[in-house]
Amino acid sequence: MSEVRKQERINCDIIFNKVESGMMTICRATNISLGGMRVERLLEPFDAKDEKVRLEIELPGDSEPLLIGAKKTYDAQGHFGLKFTEISHRHFVRLRDWVHGQNAPIHLPAFR
């Protein structure tokens, strides 16, 4: 099974909070796009029970966290993939501007 990504992912090193089953854990994003991210586990056991998670991501150089709903796309021993499913327009614009500032190609209109 091959997966087709609609957005280019860029490498990153972002520590963030993930809320799953009422428990908040710290994770590390190793790449990110406008549609999702690859995450490494830091201080949590392997647990693939819940598909839906809430994220609190503070982008480098930004002081207000992005609040994002996401769904697990795969789950392996040390890492997992997330697809963003819920994000406000304001937070999407901030994410888009940050990704664009990292020189990633963006294939979306520049709406505000």
Automatic annotation (TrEMBL):
<protein>
    <submittedName>
        <fullName>PilZ domain-containing protein</fullName>
    </submittedName>
</protein>
<feature type="domain" description="PilZ">
    <location>
        <begin position="4"/>
        <end position="99"/>
    </location>
</feature>
<dbReference type="GO" id="GO:0035438">
    <property type="term" value="F:cyclic-di-GMP binding"/>
</dbReference>
<dbReference type="Pfam" id="PF07238">
    <property type="entry name" value="PilZ"/>
</dbReference>
<dbReference type="InterPro" id="IPR009875">
    <property type="entry name" value="PilZ_domain"/>
</dbReference>
